[in-house]
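Re: beginner question about structure tokens

> Can someone show what the tokenized structure looks like for a real chain? I only ever see the sequence side.

Sure, here's an example I had lying around. Input first:
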Amino acid sequence: DLNENEGENQSCPLHIAAEKGAVDVTEGLLALGADLQVVDISGKSPFLVACNKGHEDVVDRLLAAGAIVNSSSRAGLFPLILASFGGHLGIVDRLVIHGANINHQDKLGWNALMLASRDGHVSVVDRLVGLGCDLNLRNYRSSTALMMACDRDHAEIVKILLAHGADTQLKNDK
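And the corresponding structure tokens:
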């Protein structure tokens, strides 16, 4: 069955194609009726996998086939969060153009800006801030993007966040 999950990750063929960035295989599977919403063992759709891995062409094909921009995994991971975590600016731009919510938070309160700030993805942080995302959202430990950038010594990101009004008076639970 084209949509049957197999292997240790319970992945279907479309998941594997999305993970590998196999554009032609993705198109072929879609033409044969592959299900865009089937999830692997972690609750991720092929679209979420492609966003996480940074495969822009596969993301484009899945969006054209009807992938849901604001869908999430069981853990509440949204495509924009996964693309930001990986520093995939091209995918961030595609998702925003297609209506991604820039302030979505996962089940632990993490959002795209926090992950990009923590991991030093300056271009993604700059884009998200420029789009007007909430600079002071907090995760489950009451940490903000500014706190995460400071913790990892990402000076350029700290400057961007401060220049756009990140609150320096907030405290976390650390």
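Each token stands for a local structural state, so reading them left to right follows the chain. The chain has a mean pLDDT of 93.
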